[in-house]
Design brief:
With 185 residues, the protein is mainly α. It has nine helices and no strands. The longest helix is centred in the middle third of the chain and has 25 residues, at 61-85.
Amino acid sequence: MAVALVLGGAFALAHAAGFRGARSWLLAVSPLLPLAGVAVSYGRHADPLYEITAATPSGGLRLLLTRTAAVLGVCVPLLTAGGALLPPAAGTPGAAAWLLPGLALTLATLALGSFVGCRAAAATLGGGWLLAVTGPLLGPQGQGAAGVARYFAGPAVQGAWAAAALVCAALLALRRRSFDHLETR
């Protein structure tokens, strides 16, 4: 539902309103959708049978990763295809530029979630991401795409996102046992 709402908004901005920065806005929001999906798909608040599920052999991190894969399986193709169908603007990265930042933020949510819970981790990282990208998007006309591009464009930036994803995956592997216990938050 959230993916359809975001894509619909981007297409309405681009095609109905003639807004040239729609792809920049979609790129800025796309990494947040998997975070939201992870936050609402796992834990005491999302599953009425959470205590029973957590006690099963397929509970814990295995269940969390299964649900995360389901969220990514919906978000990745739809957001990437939607971004490709939006009209490009000068200085805006390609439609798939959000994939590594989205993966890194999702893995960071899972890793941080091993300490504070998935909802708190998603809210913290999502809020930090919004603070980082909103400034350039709301800047003077014409600078929004270039400002957001610094978070997505170029081999160095994408390499940094890939390295961050690897570090978060390693931390998640080290903290995998923390998901075997019931959430207290």
